[in-house]
Design brief:
The protein is an alpha+beta fold. 44% of the residues lie in helices and 20% in strands. The protein has a three-stranded antiparallel β-sheet.
Length: 89
């Protein structure tokens, strides 16, 4: 699913950032370039991420900027705290 792919990408980004720059290094944004277009992921609140897919002709810099503006406006509403009583995997 798209949600699982987003989670896998963001965790891979976090792990790579920690490996290269230390545990305190945060990940601000991830970009995947494919033959068909781009996929961008950015943190969007506690336990939430925003993902955007574009075609090859997109202005990726503008898309990234607009993603940051959107997260600044609504990020707090996207947060997903752990549920009470959730069983550990």
């Amino acid at each position: 699913s798209l949600s699982a792919a987003c989670a896998a990408m963001t965790m891979t980004g976090r792990s790579t950032s920690a490996l290269l720059f230390g545990r305190g290094a945060g990940t601000r944004q991830l970009m995947l370039e494919t033959d068909q277009g781009f996929v961008l992921f950015t943190p969007a609140g506690v336990g939430a991420h925003l993902g955007v897919a574009t075609d090859l002709d997109a202005d990726v810099g503008l898309v990234a900027q607009q993603m940051q503006l959107l997260v600044a406006k609504i990020g707090a509403h996207l947060s997903s705290l752990p549920r009470d009583g959730a069983a550990a995997p």
